[in-house]
Amino acid sequence: MTAQDLADTLKGRLIVSCQAPPGDPMRETATLVRLALSAVAGGGSAIRANEPEVVAAITGAVDLPVIGLWKDGDTGVYITPTVRHALAIVEAGAAVVAADATDRPRPDGSAFAELVTAVHAAGALVMADVSTLAEGIAAAEQGADFVSTTLSGYVPGTPKQTGPDLGLVTSLSAAISVPVVAEGRINTPDEAAEALARGAHSVVVGTAITAPTALTARFVAGLARP
């Protein structure tokens, strides 16, 4: 699938992130596959998934594009941090590899552009997860096929918000020609629609759809307020 083909498929559509953090009861491959199947049944247009085993299982179970990543660690650059991680995700069957494209150093000293080159050579596309406008512009210049706002609010120096960084969506959409994907703390359909209105090409929603532990905790916290 070419970048243009996938862009056409995803324009104005929902990508569902089917992931679970370490220690969560949902973090089991068969369970995550069922989440992906549920997302398909609800009308999702693509799945975002973590780790080669899960990516391979979901790719084999759904007839939708899979955006794969490999989280390794929990600090610094840990979303598909090296070329090795990226190629393992391609081998697992992902149509797109999502990778950290922030300006922080990668653990093996490589550059994001090297990852892009390797993934393209392997026949897949790249989604750059960024936290700022400058990072998004740089990622597009380095060949990323999509740029996502995933890391805004999770990198030191970026705004801490309870909702999505719609300002970044707006500025990126005006500054680059590659499709901008809105991701991060999108909690309601209205917020998803607003992201599209701000120029997003498509929208990723994870926790608000696929994370019963986090959703339960949110309700429990709400009931505990005085």
Characteristics:
single chain, 226 residues, alpha/beta, eight-stranded parallel β-barrel, 15% strand, RibuloseP-bd_barrel
Please explain how this structure is put together:
The protein is 42% helix and 15% strand. The protein is built from ten helices and eight strands. It has helices at 3-10, 29-41, 52-61, 83-91, 112-121, 133-141, 166-175, 189-197, 207-210, 212-224; strands at 14-17, 46-50, 66-69, 96-100, 125-129, 146-148, 180-183, 202-205. The protein has an eight-stranded parallel beta barrel with strand order 1-2-3-4-5-6-7-8, surrounded by eight helices. Helix 7 (166-175) links the parallel strand 6 and strand 7. Helix 2 crosses helix 3 (52-61) and helix 4 (83-91) runs parallel beside helix 5 (112-121).
**Integer average pLDDT:** 97
Number of strands: 8
The percent of residues in helical segments reads 40-55%
Poorly predicted segments: none
Q: What proportion strand?
A: 15-25%
Overall form:
globular
Structural class: alpha/beta
Q: Spatial order of the strands in the main sheet?
A: 1-2-3-4-5-6-7-8
**CA-to-CA gap between the ends?**
53 Å
Cα-based radius of gyration, to the nearest Å: 16 Å
Largest sheet: 8 strands, parallel, barrel
Number of helices in the DSSP assignment: 10
Order of helices and strands: HEHEHEHEHEHEHEHEHH
